[in-house]
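Aim 2, interim progress. The first record below pairs a target sequence with its structure tokens.
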Amino acid sequence: MESVGCCSSSTSPEKRKQRQNQRDNKPYRGIRMRKWGKWVAEIREPNKRSRIWLGSYSSPVAAARAYDTAVFCLRGPSARLNFPEYITEEDDLRDGGGADMSSASIRKKATEVGARVDALETAHHHGPAESNSARVSVKPDLNEYPDPENSDEE
């Protein structure tokens, strides 16, 4: 009897911790993180067992935006979105929202949005740091600088 009480009480906190860890690792709906750090998005087709693969991305935001695009195409304005404010900006989705679309066209739209956001996120995080480090590491040739007398002409 002690083992039954022990196991039942110890498994529920462990399961709660597992669920909490899963929620912590998944900041947005419809995405998950691979072991090696990439974020992937996929969605189930309504009334089917199959899934639509939405791509692999560097940032969770890009994966979540790809998911939002797909879920909006499948379920229309009633869909639960990660970023509802961005869907209204995408004109090509307004026409297709809720319409009967093929999984290939949904995948195409979602991966386009995800890739665009991923490129912006990557440029935002890596762009300024690389340009600053390049400026610091380059040693100027002092012989090529203009004379202070001629610098007023510019």
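The second target in this work package is listed in the same format:
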Amino acid sequence: MYEELIEAAKAARLRAYAPYSNFLVGAAVLTRSGKLFPGCNIENSSYGATICAERVALGNAYAHGERELAAIAIVADTPTLCPPCGICRQVLFELGGGHFDIVLANLRGDVRVFTPAKLLPEAFSQAFLT
């Protein structure tokens, strides 16, 4: 179902800048309008400035004016599926509105689909700020 999205994430993974960890991650966002936006992890020697592939892909979609997400694929070369970090889970929950698919895949062909609420139950949201 998400083959094209996973392939876009695999291609983005190869463009990662990861000279410190050598851990390449690719992501691709599919919007409800049918457009694909890739992202890859971009490391920095000041580690806190590193940007995860998921946030790069989401930022790419948002920078192009796309706000309605259908799915995101996240791909890493790991023996098991690699879920997003905590910061990315929060960003996925908020920017995706909680109503889209998060597709985890690896280079071995394993694939599993999650919802934002499954990966981040009891998420912090804008509702707490009012």
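The longest helix spans residues 3-13. This observation will shape the mutagenesis plan for the next reporting period.
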